[in-house]
Amino acid sequence: DAKTTQPNSMESNEEEPVHLPCNHSTISGTDYIHWYRQLPSQGPEYVIHGLTSNVNNRMASLAIAEDRKSSTLILHRATLRDAAVYYCILRADNYGQNFVFGPGTRLSVLP
Amino acid sequence: GAVVSQHPSRVICKSGTSVKIECRSLDFQATTMFWYRQFPKKSLMLMATSNEGSKATYEQGVEKDKFLINHASLTLSTLTVTSAHPEDSSFYICSARGTPGYGYTFGSGTRLTVV
Predict the structure, then answer these.
(1) Half-sphere exposure of A96 toward its Cβ, with a 13 Å CA cutoff?
(2) How remote is the C-alpha of A100 from its chain's centroid?
(3) Whether the Cβ atoms of residue A10 and residue A68 lie closer than 8 Å to each other
(4) How many Å apart are CA B113 and CA B101, to the nearest integer?
(5) Which residues of A touch B44 (CB under 8 A)?
(6) In the 8-state DSSP scheme, what is residue B95?
(7) Which residue of chain A comes nearest to B50, CA vs CA?
(8) Which residues on adjacent β-strands are paired with residue A19?
(9) What 3-state DSSP class applies to B105?
(10) Is the pLDDT of residue B1 over 70?
(11) Which of A46, A49, A103 faces B43 most closely, judged by CB atoms?
């Protein structure tokens, strides 16, 4: 799996948008971009994933650069509950393979 | 949606004893399950891949005789930490993926403390 680079930590104010960046310059054509988050003392939770086009769901939006070498997870209105470690993971969508987790970005949300 | 139940959520055991952690897929069949380990402030590290009906595949450096994995059915995988030592204290997390079309789902984790 290709490597991703994320900032170690970020801060946001409550009810403001948050843009979490991820660089993946060595992404291959078959790699999907996955985002998971891990709340304190919990297992990771799926957030969103995409291949080439921007994606939206009830949790977040995923903006993918045209060259696919970077992406941004967008939380439209951060809440205190969004404080977590966010992991950006590349993975070819081959059935049965595991995820390789990097250090992720620790997001703090200030009231 | 797909739910993975992990039990217990936390356990304290004495050195030298064994502890079993269960990972169940509640509403789907999980032919493959993964076991991860996470130390404080660190990321998840894959320990082993568990396939239903066959032996688990362990990552380099993970002792298969110490971390016994059994995946006897399509909805249950167990991790047994044998002869536990304080250095085995960690957060253990399982994940599962069923038939194609499902995303990965993670259990809520088990915090093991060996005293």
Answers:
(1) 6
(2) 13
(3) no
(4) 36
(5) 44, 101
(6) E
(7) A96
(8) A74
(9) strand
(10) no
(11) A103
Phi, psi of B58 (to 5 degrees): -100, 145
What one-character-per-residue DSSP string does A94-106 give? Answer: -TTPPP-----EE
Which residues have C-beta within 8 Å of that of residue B60, sequence separation ≥ 6? Answer: none
How do residues A17-58 score in pLDDT, each as one tens digit?
Answer: 999 999 999 998 888 999 999 999 999 999 999 999 999 999
Separation of alpha carbons A109 and A9, rounded Å: 11
Secondary structure element (H or E) that encloses residue B93, with its range: strand B90-97
Residue B94 near residue B33, CB atoms below 8 Å: yes
Size of interface A-B (CB pairs under 8 A): 46
Measured in angstroms, the CA of B12 and the nearest CA of chain A are apart by 16
Q: State the sign of the Cα–Cα–Cα–Cα dihedral A23, A92, B5, A77.
A: positive
Please give the residue of chain A at the shortest CA–CA distance from B35. Answer: A98
